[in-house]
Each structure stands twice: as structure tokens, then as C-alpha cells.
Design a protein that fits this description.
4 copies of one chain form a homotetramer. Chain A is an alpha/beta fold. The first copy, chain A, has a single domain, classed as TIM Barrel (Alpha-Beta Barrel), CATH 3.20.20.70.
């Protein structure tokens, strides 16, 4: 299980975070994590999971899995395969890869059995409640319309975050909530924590930053209450 | 909103329930509904909704909707179109048409605004809890492996039904639970009610019965506690 | 089989072409078809096919089908159901409802057996060739980026249309080509025919027109070479 | 481009071909390839591509790609990522991962630009023709009902293979055809070549064999006409 509060950096399919650059970026995250003693996880592309997981000691997540079974499946990213590659868990149901509710349920169950951590994404407070009922480790609320905009959900739509927190709590007292979409500064992270989340999920704010280390350091400081 | 306890007959894409035969079968359901004063709803194919809805006075459901918006969508069954055609609500997320959690959420919301009733299908107790969190009118628990087998979930897997009831209750006190899969006799209906559901969702047990009226009458009697 | 040259009006899921308005619009298309003796077909939503097909004598198409089989399928628009409802054929693979190549193949085969006409949509010249190899009655080339823009493919990207014609011809001498996207005037229709197509597929240009009859009449005249 | 005739071993998501075992199996394939001087390629899971590609010198394929673009995509296996990981090409549209025709077209185009080889799977002769029109390097005909059965398509349904060859030829003289489904012996490979294909696509016949080296050697000998 991840230590909280935390920052999860989704590498998406950006050129800036592929292959060798995935290692470089993961090493930067590892440095900041070590220097500030804060919890930072990274989620590279499927083909880079093993490479990144063998290069750094911070937690590595898959961006999604397609199946919780093994066997006669072609072209599926299976949960067994991401574990074998060194991932400690997986994102699932990101707005760029929505899946059926039954698969989310299976992924949460299988992850528990395999000792993997789940971060289930949701686009609205209602959906956070629904996925919280499946008992994942984390629920990530991300209004899709803010993803990639630089307009942080924690500031632009604080009520989406607080409603999500309330709804998740009413359904499942154990699932923790992080928020994402538009997070690019330490201030955005601070706002997210102030609302009651245990961290943030972000991508371009770090991956496409001119100086990813500077941005992550600023966010890491915000995470531990330093200004 | 449907009166409970109730029987929902899913016409699926059977030849025995298409077009003219959809009307015949709906009229049989209407007769039994009237004769026994029991609540029976039918769910014909999209192309038959208007035909059936204009032929009988019992509630008519869509089997699924693809979208809650209108406009530049080709080949989508929209929620506006099924309402316009006379449906009083819709099934959604049947195991033969699983959808993403966000669509289920949107369908429940849009149905409330349009005064339509939602029956959200789920394959496991965990998933019943998840969809119950979306606040639909009904949750239908159906283990896919029993669908069409004639082995009733209410007898073969009573714990799936009772677990679903417990989980739904813990998440949402308002959503009612029905169960499906393998229901073919009055006894199966009786078992379903005894477990605490407010009715059954079935298909082949009635649609492909030699004498649908006899089967529905038997089930209707079971529904109102007659032997 | 449709008489060519022709105009196919896709009703999509517009409010302006739902239910009663679907009948009104289909009747306008029928009037123009009769007055000018031109071939016009309409493609209403699934729930409106029977209503429209029983109200007019011009050809009625489905916008898509989900399955070519019957039986234990919930929430699928089947090819049997659209035929039963009075459709003479179906669109398939519209950019707003892309499907797998195997389903396109099955729909073309099943349509032939059921004496239905197929219009397979494609987004590029390469894809027109691929679907032409399946031997449909018509291939409709529609660059998705022009759909709904009012910028006609026949003028903005004539080479897309002519390349499609060349590629289709090289693969299958029998499939005919129509084009769509951005068609709103008689001039656009004229341009489409001049390039070598046998007609146009359009939607908003007619459905959302202030005076659909005027627009369709203008297009109908263009179709038969009148100015 | 692969040297033909060839054997392509799809590792699927079998436990017997994951992680370390993927390397072992790929090394066996490499040994046989070297010993007999025959062309053998392997297609491990996405998370194993880099591992396998860096361990052997035979061609490594992806089992599928989800996208041909890069950027804000989460949980997609992109064509850039498999190339970066060392794949020389990709399977696409396997019956266990059917995709839309437009994606197949984009994958073929992007592969050409990236100097990657494409093997497009198809389930019927009609579909082989359709995908051949997209100009891939190879078309693999695999009747899904024979996959994993041990009943070889080359013997059980030779007409499916020969029809595919005829249809592909009529559409595209450059695409080469391989066949798959049920291939487990050297005899099956021999039958495949005799029908006119340039090789076979197989999975369990090798991956789940008691002695994969023995089976691959037998098949390799068949490939070069040795008994």
C-alpha cells in the first residue's frame, strides 16, 4: 500500500516519458521522494513498467489492465503481467480508458489477492461513490473537462472534490480519495489536501514541465506542509 | 415507478418475441397482470418499443440505452428516443450489454429527470453495491453463468441474492433488488421473494415457454402468495 | 436496391427528427422524391424505423445494427428486427458508431440473405477499399473532420472522393460510392456527382435546415442535373 | 520485413510464456531458428516485449496496439511504445482482440512509416480480402472456432485457407498470407504451406507443449521441406 499523502505521476503516452525518458523521469521522482521524504509513485506505459520498476525504488503503477485472468488472451494487459513486471498496483477506469464496472470489480478483487494497490478513477462524485463500493485502495476524482488544462480541480471545482469525499465516506470508510485534472503547482496540491484528499494524480503538469524536478519539488513541499 | 412485487420479462432478440409476436406476448403479460392484479413489465427490442407501448397498458422498458444526450449521434439508442416511443424506463448493463460505469451513472440521472425508471443489472454482489450507489430505482442481480439455464439463482445461489440485498442496503436504502437468471417456475419466483427481493427479471423462461400464459400465471400467483 | 443517383438523409439523434418529427421529415423527403422523381432515402433512429416505414413509401434505413444473429441478446439492434420494422437496409460503421471489421462483413452477408441494402461508411480512401472488398451495395466516404461543418467533402477534399472511387473500383467493380460530410446545398450534390459518386449521405444539412423541403428540392434538382 | 516461410509464436497471456518464461521460450525459438536456419518470430505480452527483444535476436512482435498516436492517452499500448521496446512489428485484430477497421488502417500506415511489419488477423476469407486492401505485410487467416483446439485449419478447413489466398490475391498482390488455429504438428505446417501460405501463426501448440523445442524443431523442419 502506498504511503500517504502522495503524488501519482501518470506518464500517459507522452514522448517525454517513453523508454529512456521514462527512466529519467522516474529517477527525478525518486530523487524528490528521497530528498523530501514524500510519497511519489509513477505510472509508465505498459512496455516500460519493467524497465522503470527495475531502475527506481519508488512505487510503479500500470496505467490500466484489460483482464484479471490469464490464458488464451491476445493483446490484453493482464494483471499477472504487470505484477510480474514489477508494478505495485494499477490505475483503472481513467477517462482515457473507461472500462465496464464488472472489470473494475474484478481488478479490485484480483489486486487484493495479488497484493497490488488499486487507484480507480471516476469522473463525477456519483461515480466515486459507485467505485468506492467496490472497496479499492484509492479513488481518484478527475473531471475530464479539466484534464490537461492547467486549471486545477482543487481550485476550479472544489465542490466536486468535497462531494466526492462525502459520497465515498458514506459508502466506504476505508477507500481514500485523491484528485486530479489540471494540477500543475504546489498550490494546487495544497488546495487538494486542504479539501481532504490524501494526494493528487497528475500527468502533463510534471511530464511536460520544462523542469520536472522543480515542479515535483514544489509539489512535494506542498505535500508535507512546507512553503 | 413500477408497483412491486413485480415480474420483468426481457424479450431479448428472440424470434418468439419480435414484431407481431412482441405484441402477442405483451398482451398475454397484460392479461395475467389484469387477471391477478400483479405487476408485470415487458422489455421488447428497440424497434418494437413503440409498437408494444401503444398496444398494451402495462409498463414497457427498453433493454438498454447507448446515450443520454441527443444530437449528432448515429446508431445510438438514446434515452430521449425510448421515452418518445413510450417506454417507462430502461434496463441497463445487462450481462449481454455491459456498459461503462459513467454511462450507468448518466442513465440513472437522465432517467430521473425524464421521469423514467431504471433497472441496473449486476453480475455479483460487489457490483450490485457499486450500481446501488448511483441511486437507481432497481438493481437486478443476475449471475451470468445461470442465465438461460433454467437453474434459478434464487435456489442455486441464494447467498448471491442475500449478499446482494445486504450490500445494496448498506450503500443505498432506497434501491430495490430483483433477481434473475434461470427463473422458469412459480417456485423460483417464490424463492426470490422469500430471500427478500421485490421481484424477478427473466427472459427465456417465459418467451420460449410452450405456454407463456400458463407460466406467467403461475409466476403471478407466486408473486401474490397464492399457491 | 436503391435507385441511383440518390440522397440518403441520416436523421441521427437530433430532436428535429425524432418521433412525430421523424414522420414529418420523412414525408417531406417523400414529397420531394415524388415531385422531382428522384431517389431519396431516410435513416431514422431505431425506435422510429417502424413508425417512419409505415408512414412513407420511400426507402427507410437503420443507422446501424449491432448483431446479425437472433436469440439471447439484450439491448442489441439486430438485423432481423430492423427488417421486421420495415427497413430496406442499414448504414453500418458510421464514424459515430464504428464497428469491428468482422461485424461489417457479417452485416453485408446477412443483408444479402435478407434482401437488405448495405451502406458501409468509411473515413479514408484506404478504408473504402477495405470495406468494398466485403462487397456491400454502397460505400460512403465521409471524412469525420468535415461532418457537421457545412464544408462539403465534395469541394474541400475532392481528392479524398476521387481516391476512394479509384480504390473501390480496383477492389470491387460492383460497389457504388456515395460521399458525405458537410453537404448542405445543391451545389455540393452537383460536385459530388461530378466527381463520380452516385449520391450523397447527409444529416444536419437537411435535418437542421430552416426549410428542409427547400434544401431537399435544391439537392434533388442537382441530382437530376437541373439548375 | 520477416523472412518467409515463417512461424509466428503468439505467447498470448499464458503463464507458460510470461516474464522469465517468455525469455526461455524465445531462446528456444531462437535456437531452432538458428539450428535449422528457419524464420521464427515471437509475440510476447506488452510488458515483456522489451525483455524478450533484448534477450534474443529473432524478430519480436507485439500482440496488438491500441493507438497510433502519442500524447494524452492512458492505458493504451501505442505503436511508438512497442517500437521503442524493440518490437519489429505487431499483430492486429486477433480474434481475442478485434478492433475497428479504421484502427487497422492506421496501424498499417503508421507501421510503414516506422518501418514495422504488420500481421493483420482475419476470421473469414471475406475479411482477409478486406484487410488485404489496407496493404499490410501479412494477413493471417484464423477461424476462431478452431483456435486452441488442436484441429488444424490447414487440414480441417483447407477451403478457408485457399479461399483466403484467392481473395487476398484478387485485392492485393503484395500481401502474404499465413494461417493459424489448431496448428500443433509439423504436418499441420506442411499442409499450410502446401495450400499456398507462407507460414503459420500459432500459440498453445508451442507454448503449452511439453517439449516446445521438439515441437518447434518438427515445425521448422516442415517449413524447410525436411521430413
Amino acid at each position: 500500500m502506498l504511503r500517504t499523502p502522495m503524488i501519482v505521476v501518470n506518464f500517459k503516452a507522452y514522448r517525454e516519458s517513453l523508454g529512456k525518458k521514462a527512466i529519467e523521469l522516474a529517477k527525478i521522482a525518486e530523487e524528490v521522494s528521497r530528498e523530501l521524504n514524500v510519497s511519489i509513485a509513477v505510472a509508465p506505459q505498459a512496455t516500460d513498467i519493467r524497465l522503470v520498476a527495475s531502475s527506481v525504488s519508488i512505487p510503479v503503477f500500470a496505467q490500466a489492465v484489460d483482464s484479471t485472468t490469464i490464458g488464451a488472451l491476445t493483446g490484453h494487459v493482464t494483471i499477472e503481467s504487470i505484477k510480474d513486471a514489477g508494478a505495485v498496483g494499477t490505475l483503472i477506469n481513467h477517462s482515457e480508458r473507461r472500462v465496464q464496472i464488472s472489470l473494475i470489480s474484478e481488478v479490485v478483487k484480483a489486486s487484493r489477492e495479488l497484493n497490488l494497490t488499486t487507484i480507480v478513477c471516476a469522473d463525477t462524485p456519483e461515480v466515486t461513490a459507485a467505485v468506492a463500493a467496490l472497496n479499492p485502495d484509492f479513488v481518484a476524482i478527475e473531471p475530464p473537462e479539466l484534464i490537461g488544462t492547467g486549471i486545477p480541480v482543487s481550485k476550479a471545482k472544489p465542490e466536486v472534490v468535497t462531494n466526492s469525499l462525502d459520497k465515498v465516506k458514506s459508502v466506504n470508510s476505508k477507500s481514500k480519495v485523491i484528485c486530479g485534472a489540471g494540477i500543475t503547482t504546489g498550490d494546487d496540491v495544497r488546495a487538494a489536501l486542504r479539501l481532504g484528499t490524501v494526494g493528487v494524480l497528475l500527468a502533463s503538469g510534471v511530464v511536460k514541465a520544462k523542469d520536472p524536478k522543480k515542479v515535483l519539488t514544489e509539489m512535494g513541499n506542498a505535500l508535507i506542509g512546507k512553503t
